[in-house]
């Protein structure tokens, strides 16, 4: 029995190998074979068809994966990977370091050009937000104008320390006294400024200060001897109104140019309790401001001339000067500023005569920082250091610009 069945098994095996190596038509393959051998050949042919269909499906899936990779990572140079399930594709798009259990951030709108993408060690910065603190600081310093229908309310407080030795004048009762004296003055000024954006790229500006001065002096009164004492005085300063207009916009080497004219009424207090106050000085000033950007830097330069008018027999000297500064957008909410101011003051006149030695050259170096507190409120802090003998020893100012749309 075993010898009789052996040839049959060998014949079946050889027939299967022949079908795999060189498939024949079904009619030829089934001819002259037993039913068992015919069934085996039919199954082998069916498997060949299934394998061919699977290969076609895999080819289509590989093409789909290639298109998905090109859409998700258009600039990726990585090789093609095996097809992944939707959950695996979402995991691949998840930022580095985020696990499957962590909540995914909401879908973001397309990033503007120049915005850093995701990935290890990278960060995303909104360029509009990065410019916000810088532009608010430029507006506060007068190098940028408000858009129409915008209003900035800018309350500020400043402290100035002056130590001077020069001819000056003061009031002794109702008499105006001119002498030479050593003066130490601490001046505190609270100012309320309002800026209103107008059409045609223009801006209306108002300012009203209140001054407090604490003064220590040693005066040489000639035959009357020397006078030493301290006093303090306070009073409203000079109300000012101004108009600013943008003339040109930055293009290539050409900067933004803003022209400004300001008139100071001069209705403020000139003295209180025998202390001279920084008020009662009517004047008109013209200014030209240039702004050039090289993000994240902004360079600002300005020149001005101020014409003074006489009041109560006193006429402060005309002034001319310039300023050079730069601002840096240190972060989306913070900007830094550095500036050098130079002012030349002509002699003060009393009853039409120059006061000898009252001409001044004032140089100041200012450094400051601005920070956005919320959408509409910003904090600006400036420290100024005097660079000449006529300049204040130092100055410190805090401003809180508040914007209304």
Can you describe this structure?
The chain is of the alpha+beta class. It folds into 2 domains: 2-72, no CATH class; 130-404, Lipocalin (Beta Barrel), CATH 2.40.128. Helices cover 21% and strands 45% of the residues. The chain contains 5 helices and 19 strands. The protein has helices at 2-21, 26-30, 35-72, 86-93, 127-140, and strands at 151-172, 175-198, 202-220, 226-236, 240-248, 256-264, 271-272, 275-276, 283-294, 297-308, 314-315, 319-331, 334-345, 349-350, 353-354, 360-372, 378-386, 394-399, 402-404. The strands form 3 sheets. It has a 12-stranded antiparallel β-barrel. A hairpin with a 2-residue loop joins strand 12 and strand 13 (334-345). The longest helix has 38 residues, at 35-72. Residues 1-7, 21-30 and 74-127 have low confidence and may be disordered.
Key descriptive features of the protein:
alpha+beta, twelve-stranded antiparallel beta barrel, rod-shaped, Lipocalin, disordered N terminus, 405 residues
Helix content, binned percent: 10-25%
What is the count of structural domains?
A: 2
Termini, distance in Å? 106 Å
The CATH class assignment of the largest domain is: Mainly Beta
Any idea what the CATH superfamily of the largest domain is called? Autotransporter beta-domain
> How are the strands of the biggest sheet laid out side by side?
1-2-3-5-6-9-10-12-13-16-17-18
What's the order of the H and E elements? HHHHHEEEEEEEEEEEEEEEEEEE
Radius of gyration: 42 Å
CATH-scheme architecture of the largest domain:
Beta Barrel
> Which residues sit in consecutive blocks of at least 5 with pLDDT less than 50?
1-7, 21-30, 74-127
Q: How many extended strands? A: 19
């Amino acid at each position: 029995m075993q010898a009789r069945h052996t040839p049959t098994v060998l014949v079946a095996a050889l027939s299967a190998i022949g079908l795999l190596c060189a498939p024949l038509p079904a009619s030829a393959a089934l001819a002259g074979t037993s039913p068992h051998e015919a069934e085996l050949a039919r199954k082998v042919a069916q498997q060949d068809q299934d394998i061919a269909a699977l290969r076609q499906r895999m080819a289509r899936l590989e093409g789909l994966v290639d298109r998905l990779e090109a859409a998700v990572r258009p600039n990726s140079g990585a090789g093609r990977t095996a097809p992944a399930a939707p959950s695996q594709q979402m995991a691949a798009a998840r930022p580095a370091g985020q696990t499957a259990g962590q909540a995914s951030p909401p879908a973001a709108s397309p990033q503007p050009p120049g915005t850093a993408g995701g990935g290890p060690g990278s960060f995303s910065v909104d360029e509009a937000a990065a410019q916000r603190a810088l532009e608010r600081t430029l507006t506060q310093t007068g190098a940028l104008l408000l858009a129409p229908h915008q209003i900035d309310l800018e309350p500020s407080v400043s402290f100035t320390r002056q130590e001077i030795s020069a001819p000056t004048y003061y009031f002794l009762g109702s008499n105006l006294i001119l002498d030479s004296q050593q003066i130490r003055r601490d001046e505190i000024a609270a100012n309320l400024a309002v800026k209103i954006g107008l059409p045609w790229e223009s801006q209306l500006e108002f300012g009203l200060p209140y001054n407090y001065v604490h003064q220590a002096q040693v005066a040489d009164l000639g035959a009357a001897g020397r006078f030493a004492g301290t006093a303090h005085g306070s009073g409203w300063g000079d109300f000012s109104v101004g108009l600013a207009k943008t003339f040109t916009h930055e293009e290539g080497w050409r900067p933004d140019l803003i022209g400004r004219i300001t008139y100071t009424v001069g209705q403020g207090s000139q003295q209180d309790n025998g202390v001279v106050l920084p008020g009662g000085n009517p004047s008109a000033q013209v200014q030209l401001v240039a702004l050039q950007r090289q993000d994240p830097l902004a360079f600002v330069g300005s020149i001005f001339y101020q014409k003074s008018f006489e009041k109560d027999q006193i006429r402060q000297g005309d002034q001319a000067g310039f300023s050079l500064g730069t601002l840096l957008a240190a972060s989306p909410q913070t900007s830094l500023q550095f500036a050098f101011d130079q002012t030349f003051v002509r002699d003060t006149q009393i009853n039409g005569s120059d006061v000898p030695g009252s001409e001044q050259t004032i140089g100041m170096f200012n450094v400051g920082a601005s920070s956005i507190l919320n959408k509409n409120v910003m904090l600006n802090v400036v420290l100024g250091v005097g660079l000449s003998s006529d300049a204040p020893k130092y100055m410190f100012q805090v401003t809180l610009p508040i914007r209304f749309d």
